[in-house]
Structure formats: structure tokens, C-alpha cells
Amino acid sequence: MKPRFIPPWRSLIFLFDMTLIPHIALCNSNFSILFLLFTVMSNRLTEKPYLLSPFSIGLCYIPTGIGSLTGSICGGWVSDWSAKRFPRAIEGRLIFNLIGSFLCPLGLLLCGWSFHFNLHLAGPLIGSTLFCFGETFMFTSTSAFATIKKPTMAGTILALISSIGFLSSGIGIIVIIPLFKILKFGYLFSILAAIVFLLICISGMVIIFQIRKSNLTTTHSSILKTTPSSHALIDQSKDIIPIQLF
């Protein structure tokens, strides 16, 4: 089979796939907030009451790096385990990773309000580490999910996720940084945490719907195989819930 050219903009069609876009939106939002967190964190640590040197600020990013590394490893293991636990739908590998992503809004709230009230440095460090863990914990499973769902276009989808993530990060920093002068850390990070929480809920509803749809399809197929005659099929069809395409 001869290779053929595929237009690079064709990957944008996946932005209209409602079984993919909620998870992509969640990962890109967390990625954008991660860049924003690193940007404002370095500036905040040079102010009172912290007044840290550049070397000390660099040391503060070590826990976040460890959190990201740990989240990636644990996220991949949990994703593979949950795929065996829920084999009927490929969305099953996202369930426990989505639950773990609740660490993202929790970490944002802890980090933001610790900076807001000038609390001990341990507060924002723990909050940012929790956020980094939750971000990579979910990103790993989403990448695996996209690869399995669209194996022939896996590279295109992953490239789309990365490009949108960097684009939204740049736009987010330009838009949100001026808001710090108005809303301060606590309130702005609370808004960001609420956005992430909403995206998690939307992604969760899509996962539940797809798993339920897969279970109904399996049940319907098993009934068709075990039905002895067309008359029995008509009698049992009343008990079958119609499957709605998503």
C-alpha cells in the first residue's frame, strides 16, 4: 500500500468527537494551569514573606517534578489495571484516573489560598505537588485511551493534544496574569479550580454514558443469540432499553 499525504489540518476533526474532546479539554486545561502555576509561583516566592533566592526557588520545583514523575508512573499502571477491570468499554481505563485528577482542584485551592494568606512555604509546595501529580495521572491515561480508540490516527491525536496545550498555555498566561492584580491568588485559583472540577464532572458523565452504552450493547447481543424464535424476540424486546448514539 502506497503512502498518501494527509492534510495536517485533518486532525482538527477530532475536536468534534464528543467521546474524545471532554478528556482532551481536561488535560489541556490542567496543562495550561500548570504553566500558569509555574509562572506566578516563581514571582510570588521572591516577594514577602518568602523572599527566596533564585537557587532556593529552583529547589522548590523539585517536589513538583517528583509529583509529575510519580503521577505518570502511577497513572499508567492504574490505567492498565482499570482496563482489565472494565473490559467492555475502552473508557473503563479512565475511571480511576479521573478520580485521581480531583487532586488538581484540591492542589490549586491549597496553593492559591496559602499564597493569599502568606502561609508557610509548605502549603503552596504541597498544593503544587498535588496538582502536578493529578495532572500527569490523568494525562497518561488519556494518551493511552486516544491511542487505543484511534490506533491509525494515534500520533495525530497526541500531536493535537500537545499543540493545543501549548497554545492554550500561552493565551492563558497573557489573559490571566493581569487578573492577579484584581483577584489575587486565592480567588483566581478558586475560579481555576472550579473550571477544572466542572471539566472533570463532564468527562465523568461521558465515561459513564459510554460504559452504560457498551453494557447495553453487550446485553442486547446476548439476548439475540439466546432467543429461540422471532416471537420470543418480540416479547423480550419490551425489556430492552434502546441505545442512543452518542
TrEMBL record:
Which one of the record's GO molecular function terms can you name?
Answer: transmembrane transporter activity
Q: Keywords, A to Z?
A: Membrane, Transmembrane, Transmembrane helix, Transport
Compartments where found: Membrane
Does the record carry Membrane as a key word?
yes
What Gene Ontology terms describe where this protein resides (cellular component)?
plasma membrane
Stretches that traverse the bilayer = 12-38, 50-73, 94-115, 121-145, 157-180, 186-209
Stated membrane topology is: Multi-pass membrane protein
Give the main location.
membrane
Q: Is Ion transport found in the keyword set?
A: no
Q: Which Gene3D superfamilies match?
A: MFS general substrate transporter like domains (1.20.1250.20)
Identify this protein by name.
Major facilitator superfamily (MFS) profile domain-containing protein
